[in-house]
Amino acid sequence: MTSRRTASAVASLTLVASTDAYAHTGAAGPGGFGRGVAHPFAGFDHLIAMIAVGVWAARRGGRSVWFVPVAFLLLMTIGAILGAIGIAVPFAGAAVVLSLFVFAMIVVAAVKLPMWASLAIVAGFALLYGDMHGTAMAPNAAALSYGAGFLLATALLHATGVGLVALTRRLIMAARRMMY
Fold first, then answer.
1. 90: helix, coil or strand?
2. DSSP 8-state class, residue 139
3. Is the pLDDT of residue 118 over 80?
């Protein structure tokens, strides 16, 4: 019963977040850096996916704590550049919605994958996130400042996921010490 409830909760949250994925454009305008920082905090799709990447990386432990989020940031940047120069990936929006479900299920089910598989999943979805935002960027946008703000905010959300895992582990250890 618990796994059904968990799966239902993940599916519901993913559906709510997916409406955000289709509802925003990612376009940057005047004041690009500030808009870039604000954008990932403006929708459930970014919040869920970026925090989930941090949680996933932290649960993997070791070098993954850095490699997984850095891979995401790097491939998202490459995707944004490709999108900005006119190379649009078909169905990127649908893939972003799929990423929400995949990331949520990996986190909820505590899936353990080899490093190469983790990096491949993260890289593929990051490329699509970047492409979607690069394609939607206004031609007169302050692309570099917007991108820098967007990357900073994304990194902060990844760090939030890592921090949540660290905090949870500390709380569990403290509770165990109090029980015994």
1. coil
2. T
3. yes
